[in-house]
Each structure stands twice: as structure tokens, then as C-alpha cells.
Amino acid sequence: MPKKRPGGGLSPMQQAAKFLGVSVLAGAVMAGIALPAAGALGLAAKGSVQGFDEIPANLKSPQLSQRTTILDNQGKQIATVYSRDRTVVDLKDISPYMQKAIVAIEDSRFYKHGAVDLKGVLRALNKNAQEGGVAQGASTLTQQLVKNYFIEEAGDDPTKVAEATQQTLGRKIRELKYAIQIEDKLGKKKILENYLNITFFGEQAYGVEAASQRYFSKHAKDLNLQESALLAGIVQSPSRYDPVNDEAEATKRRNTVLQRMAEVGDISQKEADQAKGKPLGLHTSRPKNGCITAVKGAGFFCDYVRQVVLTDPVFGKTKEARAKLWNRGGLTIRTTLDPQAQQSAQASIKDHVYKSDAVATAATIVEPGTGKILAMGQSRPYGVNVKNDETTINLSVNGDMGGGAGYQPGSTFKPIVAAAAIEGGKPPTQEYSSPYEMTYPSPVSACDGKTWRDDPNKPTKLTNENESEHGPYAMKEATAKSVNTYYVQLISDIGICPVIDMAKQMGVQRADGRKITQAPSIALGTQEMSPLTMANAYATFASRGMYCTPIAIESVTKKVGSERKSLPVPKSTCSRAMSEKTADTVSTLLKGVVEDGTGQEAGLGSRPSAGKTGTTDERFAAWFVGYTPNMAGAVWVGDPQHKRKMTNITIGGVPHDKVYGGEVPGPIWRDMMSGALEDKPVEDFHLVDIPDDTHDGGDDPGKGDGGTEDGNNGDTTGRLIGGLIGGPTDGGATDGSTGDATGGTLGGTFPTPTISVPGNFIQGQVNGGNHGGGNGHGGGRR
């Protein structure tokens, strides 16, 4: 029987003997076992010596988390993202000084012992027994490598990290068992290489290459003696020996490493003394992590790419798997971003709208026929500093991809109504009376056999922008002048459902994910949408009727060992949304808008272009959406909070009494597209012959967009009636369909979150039937 200590229990030497007995047993158990190609780390801690044989024998070196690099379509870096900044390098690419320094200070007998240093174990056990706990470690570099494997596998899970780092005898035994496997399989040089690539050096730097870049802005192969000693010293306690925050403590630790290198014969005492007298020589570089570091204002596009990776099942079956791939995957993502287009978009935005303005702008360019997103930017920079006018909300995209609730597109929706009508057989010469003022036609057919009806007792009125605008009009002039009453008569004639169907085929959807409301006021752009949605919809016209889903990623590769493996990526799917003739007819109509109508300030000179202006009632939003045969773009200007009306306002240093789609977004679009298309082929549309209108419906196309004058009639009436009466009984759509009012969904649905509710005003969104009809708070203007 072993002798007991007076206080009970085994003496320090007896504990050591027991531990060594286990170690010998471990050696016998593990003899001849090779490291398997696959297996689990088995993070469950074994808290006792008796659990040794229960520890899984299989150990797999984890795929080290590395930075992901995002590139534009020319292969130039946009940004890097990572949860752990690491670049894995071969041992030959690490300075010999660094190799010697880490061995000298962490495990000077590394090349003399096996997986376990028995002398070190005895020393540590004796010390720990005296202290009554775990006061000193005896881990070899191999055991430390195993511990780092556990930490790496734990990722950002705090429970698993705690298990991987807990100071218990059980964890030490677990390290021992796996360390024996690794020594047998890898050999000393590979163990040292893996250790230097996995260990944490502070300042967000994992691995010696990242650390060398962070502290000295150089590669690990170029580290000199004193630099290597500094990095080696940091490993024991990255926070305590951080040279950035405590130069004195870091210097003392560096000199300790230098002295140890001299003691073990790696360098002479003279070399050590000379190195001790030199300054730290820091040349730090800031961590460049995340979309906030993106170049050319591409932070929001970078964030969109992130959203694609996090949400598309092609990148992983679960949300957790996709997040891990994004943060730790070591990916190289080549995107669709065109640097010329992106730079032009940001330059135009900067010239026309200041980041500190009361309103913001967002712009997006896509490629017709492919769905490739070529540019995406906005006036408020990407970031979290609100005082610096920064935001992380991507104003160009839908809510589920990091955007907001969207913005009413106003008259930029009218071409979709025109496309539905033409596709259904209506000629572009179709004429309507198009008076200056009228009530909504009622009833109007909707989808699934339903019918929209106005309240016969209090019919909803709408007007054009100017009293001089009155019909009769045909489609060409009505589109150029953006005549509200014409388009409401048109949708009432063909029915609501063809427009809903055409919008769906063109990828047009509400930014908040809800269904488009079935009401004739949708013709005036009352449903909130994003710039990306509108740009891609107009790309359908540019590609002669082919709609392609938007894509942001061209290819993805992942570093696996020393090789790169290609991963699947989302592909654009293209389908015919309308006939070529219909698309060409719409292009002919919209070419007239730029040449002779409300969009003249957006013209591209000798390069053929087409587009449409849009300004909502009360001027909460203004748009220009347009295209050439090879690019389509959308520009929105407004208050993301939907509080500031764009009247008596200064934007980009220019004062405006009233903001129109052609006046502010139009020039932004013009300058953006001019730069993006520079040196690109000049292509023309396939135009159709549309006879000129035989009637003159007005003297002046005006500046407006065909809506009511600051909410006159339609706006005020719509909000009051819609809010006070409400419901399908008093003006809602019958047969179960919903009405629409003031630019939002009605008939019992809850209010659109971007629309503010003045304290003394009842808005027509709440149980408001169809009153307001969209002529109120949104829709209609040029």
C-alpha cells in the first residue's frame, strides 16, 4: 500500500508516479496507432484518470479558419472578412529565427523528447501539488498544438471553448493521448509548422504570418532575430505582453526570450545582448476585417454578398453551417462587381448628394441578360457610427437581404402596366380620355375572380400634375408626360391581375416580402420596392423580354491544404417575361421619356437610352430607372425614415423648392451610367413604329410626374376617407380581395412601417379599404 500524506491523499511524488503510470499505459495503448484520415476531436472532457481508455482514439486536425477574400470581376480585392485572421504558410516560409525562438521559450527540449516531457511532468506535478491546484503546466509544443486544435474546433461557442481550455487533469490526459498520435504521425517539423500557424499572437492575429503582418507589416519569412523573439514571447499571454498597448512589458518579455535562446545555444550571448538593446521596431497595420473596409464604397455590395452566403442553401444546409463558412472558410469569392461601374456610381452619388443631407440616395446597376450586379452604392457610408452618418442598412436591396422596407417607386411602375397591356393585346395607340381630374373607375377585375370596388358614396379622386395635362392621350404621349389618369384608366381596362402577373414575371416584389396589393392604384407605384428590384426589372426590357434573377457571385474557391477547391455558387435563372415585340415597344415608349418627356435631364447624349421618372405624392421619394441595351440602373432619393418631404430642401448643396424624379435622380443616373459605359460598345434598341398621337392633351409636359399637387385631393382625401371609413364594406375590394390606399396595403393589413403617422392626421392604411387609392401618400408624380 502506498504511504499516505499526513493530511490524507497521495504525496506529490506518488501523484507523479500515478500520472507517469498512466503515461506509460498510454504509450502502450497508442503504440502502432496511426493518425486516421477522419474522425472527431471528441471535446467532452474526461475528468479522471480512470476515463483514459474511454477517450476516442481518433483525432482529425481541423481545417484552420482563415480569412475570406472578396474580389471584383477583375480579380482585384474588395475586402477581407474573418473571425480569425490567419494565413497558413509552410515552415520554409517562416524565419529560422522565429522557429528557434518559439521552441526556446515554449519547449526547449522539443527535439529531445517524445509527445510528453517526463521531466517537465514531474516538475509541474510537484509544483501543482504544493499549490493545491494547477499552478504550472508541463505541456510540450505537441500538447499545446492539441489544445489549440480543440480551441479551433470550438470556434466561437463559449461552452466548447471553456471545455477546451479548462485546467484539469482530465484535459491534460486527453492532450497526452492525442499528442502521442500526432508525434507518431506528423513528426517534429510538421508539428512546429502547424503550431506556428494555429497559435494566437494577440491583436486579432492567428498564426505567425498574420502576426508578422500585424506588428511589422512584413512576411513571416522576413522576421529578424528581435522581431521573432517578440512574437514568440507574446504567445504565453497575448494580452499581458501586447507590444501595442504595453511596450515596456513586451520589451521585458522579448528580452527573456532572447536570453533563453542564448542559454540553449541558438544564438550567442553577444547576439542576445545586441538584440536586447534595440527598440521593438513596430510597424503595425490595422486589422482589415469586414465589409467596412471595402474599397470604392463597395461596403453595401460586400454585405449583400455576405447575405447571399448566409441565406442560400448552396453554401450549406443550415444557417450555422453557412455562417461558419463565411467567417472561417478561407474562401476566395470572385463577384460580379465591375470596378468601373462601381467607381462611377459612387462618384456620381458623391457629387449630387452629401452624406449629411436630410435625405439619402441609393443606386444599383445590373447587366441585362445575365442578372449580374455591376454596382451598388449609396450616399450614407457603410458603418456603425451614426454620428458620422453611417449605416449598415443597405438601401438598395430588400429587407431580407439587409435592406429596409423599400420605397414607393411612383411612376417608374407605369412601364410594367404598359407591358402587361401590350402583352395582352392592347396597342400602344390605345387612347383614353385621361382628364386632369377623375375618380377611380369601379368595379375593376382582380385575380382569382375577385373584384375591386370603390366606395360609391365617397369615390376616390386623382389628378394629373398640371391642369394643362388632359386628354385624350395615347400611350406614347401619356408615358412621356407620365399621365396618372391615363394609366389608371389603362389598368382599369385590362384588369389588375395581368399587371400583378407581369410584375411577378419581371421579378418585381415588395421589399418587405408581402404580396402586391390588388388595387388599381398600383399603376401609380404605391407598393414599396428596392432599387435593385427596379433596376433588374428594367433590365428585362433591355434584354428584349428575358428576365434573369440577380446574382452577385461568379465563383468561390476554398483552400483545402495546399490546394484550392471550387465550390458551387448560385446561378442566375432566366425566363421569358414578355415577347420581344412587347419589350421593344416599351423601350420605344421609354426612349421617348428621355428624349422628349420628363426624363430629359437623364439623357446620355449620343448613346441611346430609355427610362422613366418617378416622384411620389408629398415627395417622400424620387426615382429614375433607366437602361441601355447593355446596362440597367436605378436611382432612388428620399428619406429612409420616410419623415422628410423633399420640398424646400437642399440636396448636394443645391436648393430645391420641390424635388422631381427627372431633376435630382435623373442627373445622378446620367453621370453614373456615363462613367460605367465609357469605352463600352454603343448599342441601339430594336425600336418599333408607334404613330404619333392625333390629339394634343396638354401644352407642357411640366416637371412633375402626373400625381396630385402635394397631395391635393387624392392625398388628403385618400388619407382621411381611408382612415375614417375603411373595410371592404365601405370601399374595400369585394370577394375577399384587399384594397389599397395612400401608397400602402389596406383592407385590414397593418401599416407599412416606413410611413409615418402625423399626430393630427388619420392615414388611410389602417382598415382603410381602397380609399386614397395610392393617389395619396405615394404614386403618380413624374
From TrEMBL:
It is an enzyme of class 2 (transferase). Keywords: Carboxypeptidase, Glycosyltransferase, Hydrolase, Multifunctional enzyme, Protease, Transferase. The keyword Transferase applies. Residues 688-703 have a biased composition (Basic and acidic residues). It comes from the Bacteria. GO terms for molecular function: glycosyltransferase activity. PANTHER family: BINDING PROTEIN TRANSPEPTIDASE, PUTATIVE-RELATED, PEPTIDOGLYCAN GLYCOSYLTRANSFERASE. The keyword Cell membrane does not apply. It catalyses: Preferential cleavage: (Ac)2-L-Lys-D-Ala-|-D-Ala. Also transpeptidation of peptidyl-alanyl moieties that are N-acyl substituents of D-alanine; [GlcNAc-(1->4)-Mur2Ac(oyl-L-Ala-gamma-D-Glu-L-Lys-D-Ala-D-Ala)](n)-di-trans,octa-cis-undecaprenyl diphosphate + beta-D-GlcNAc-(1->4)-Mur2Ac(oyl-L-Ala-gamma-D-Glu-L-Lys-D-Ala-D-Ala)-di-trans,octa-cis-undecaprenyl diphosphate = [GlcNAc-(1->4)-Mur2Ac(oyl-L-Ala-gamma-D-Glu-L-Lys-D-Ala-D-Ala)](n+1)-di-trans,octa-cis-undecaprenyl diphosphate + di-trans,octa-cis-undecaprenyl diphosphate + H(+). This is Transglycosylase domain-containing protein. Residues 362-641 form the Penicillin-binding protein transpeptidase domain. Pfam families: Transgly, Transpeptidase. Residues 710-719 have a biased composition (Low complexity). Residues 447-469, 688-782 are annotated as: Disordered. Residues 75-261 form the Glycosyl transferase family domain. Residues 720-734, 766-782 have a biased composition (Gly residues).
